[in-house]
Design a protein that fits this description.
The chain has about 210 residues and is of the alpha/beta class. It contains six helices and seven strands; from the N terminus they run βαβααβαβββαβα. The protein has one domain: 3-Layer(aba) Sandwich (Rossmann fold), CATH 3.40.50.
Length: about 210
């Protein structure tokens, strides 16, 4: 039995969101093919992601100097514990699916906040004399990014979403990465449904082998 972590970052309801509707098509097909797998869902707008702030940086600095968790301030304890739980949840997953819209050539800030809670020194990567090393490599982990855009940006210098997520996943050791990108839903609105259907079909095909 595998664990799949499904991470969404969209304020719209599923029926009004391209990325979420394609994501739902993937999840429905995936669970049909893998009924015993465990699904863990995370809504980055709803589930109160802890950002890295002054308390977190202070706590990490103290702990690097040998301080115990119990010796930190109450705010520091609470915040680093929350980040630790998110990182542990991420490490425990075997597969990752992210569903995001494009905001101003990137994804919403909430996803970057989340990445900062799971890309954590000592949990998902370490530094070595020859450079950083991902701690999740060679574990068969894989990632799918479902991404929607109003225009046509994928594969150009204006796409700062899919390449970044692929890069950061690889940094942590998750090198099996693919994407379903649904483009042009605002640029050519009369074809938006066509683009969405094609995205769902591609996502479902991936779900059958993911």
């Amino acid at each position: 039995m595998a664990k799949l972590l499904y991470v969404t970052c969209n304020l719209k309801p599923v029926e009004l969101s391209t990325s979420l509707s394609v994501g739902k098509a993937f999840i429905d097909e995936y669970l049909k093919q893998n009924p015993t797998d465990e699904l863990d869902s995370l809504d980055l707008y709803r589930d109160n992601i802890q950002r890295i702030d002054a308390d977190v940086l202070s706590a990490w600095g103290k702990m690097r100097e040998g301080a115990s968790l119990a010796s930190l301030t109450s705010d520091e304890q609470r915040k680093v514990t929350r980040i630790g739980k998110r990182a542990d949840q991420f490490v425990a997953a075997d597969k990752y699916v992210f569903a995001t819209p494009m905001f101003n050539l990137g994804f919403p800030a909430e996803l970057k906040m989340y990445i900062d809670t799971v890309c954590v020194l000592g949990k998902t990567f370490i530094y070595t004399p020859t450079g950083a090393e991902g701690l999740l490599k060679n574990q068969g982990k894989k990632c799918l990014h479902i991404h929607s855009t109003g225009g046509f940006h994928y594969g150009t210098e204006n796409d700062h979403s899919v390449p970044y997520l692929k890069s950061i996943m690889g940094f942590m050791g998750v090198e099996d990465f693919e994407a379903v990108v649904v483009e042009g839903v605002d640029a050519i609105p009369e074809r938006a449904e066509e683009f969405k259907v094609a995205g769902k079909e591609k996502a479902q095909a991936i779900a059958r082998r993911f």
